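Hey team,

Filing this mostly as a record. A colleague (T.K.) asked me to run one chain through the structure pipeline before their review meeting, and I want the input and output archived in the tracker in case anyone asks later how it was produced. No errors, nothing strange. Just documentation.

Input sequence:
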Amino acid sequence: MRPAPGARERFAALVAPGVQEIDLAEAALWIAAEEYPDLDVAAYLARLDALAEQAAPALRAAGNLAARIEALNRFLFQEQGFAGNREEYDDLRNSYLNEVLDRRRGIPITLSLVYVEVARRLGLRAFGISFPGHFLAKVVGGEETVVDAFFGRVLSRRECQERLEAVVASPVELRPELHLRAATPRETLVRMLANLKHAGIRSGDTLRALGASERILLVEPGAVSELRERGLLYERLECYAAALADLRSFLERAPEDPSALGVRARILALEERVRGFH
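Output structure:
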């Protein structure tokens, strides 16, 4: 998979280290543009604007914040039909924002992104939540309201507690300041790209996985463990010089990491392989 002309560069500019305010929807669309070379990013941003415009009358007619959230949920999940793709969860189209807007189907993180972007255009303080196992959204104002965009419903604190225990498989106390805190745009993008990376690894599409890993490092240049991951992907592609560079860099930055011993063994094996070429 070869990046669309300019797509990687546009993404890199949006997430450059000095950028404080990342346009999450635009960044997500530039991720998709590597898969869809003719993608009209501006047109899909306008689609989000249009959804907010359509929902606006119902929210204006609502009274308090709870009623506005209920109106937004009814608009997105019932009238517009946005829902989790339970039948084909692993379909890659669920991970691309343009496809989610077209098909009204997605996975938790892309549906939450649609929810947050529309809610913000309507003046609500909405954020993503990088909840363990299942990305969520929330609207802040007085008490926080947690929304599961995949199932199209509000979650109570008890339900959040039960989901947390199900993921960690042991009793644990839900700590809102930790488990329900707002995810930053960078955290959200890394999680989106990690989904694509793991999908590529599962399907044997190493180039797709590598592209996702490269973009994770654009978002978070200090993600040392991702250097190791990218190095291993380079090795799969028989790009041994690049693999060695990443794995050596990983060891320099994280010599005490639990995986360091295994990485040293990989480096020795790669060095031996490279010497065999000469």
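Quick notes for T.K.: The longest helix spans residues 41-61. The domain at 185-196+204-276 is CATH 1.25.40.10 (Serine Threonine Protein Phosphatase 5, Tetratricopeptide repeat).
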